[in-house]
Write a structure and sequence with these properties.
Elements lengths: L1 H19 L4 H38 L1 H20 L3 H16 L5 H16 L5 H24 L4
Helix pairs in contact: 1-2, 2-3, 2-4, 4-5, 5-6
Length: about 160
Amino acid sequence: MYVLFGILLSVLVSALHERLKVRTQTLSQIAAIFGVVWVGLMIASGMISNIGIAAVFELAVKDPEQAITVLRAIKTVVEGIGGGNEIVGGLWILLLSTAALKGNELHKTLNYLGVFVGIVGILTIYPAGAFTEIFGISQLAWFAWLEIFMLTNSEG
């Protein structure tokens, strides 16, 4: 799932950068950098998870206890790179939404939601699981609204 998300996210990062760079070039470019980094983290996380699970299944036949230890290690790496904290994704959404607000792009309320989502994503630096859950749910709403907006308000 992480790999697919990363691939689709790369298209979105590029499209939004193209749309916003006219009015807010520098901020849009900085946002795009964080977006590209997030894409890489998502894809890397998914690839580590896919290969790691295969290794765990192989090991489970020979040494189930060792397989559990390896699974825990893989989970820690995957969560650290792409799932347990959302700082990079939060920064991308926050910077992107700020650029859209400054450039009077997208829908104003959508941008304010993006600012909220971005801040919550950054707050996942704290180990409280609530921030990760709030980020995930609010991010889904933001992505859905963004998709609808972009499909109905294309620029040519």
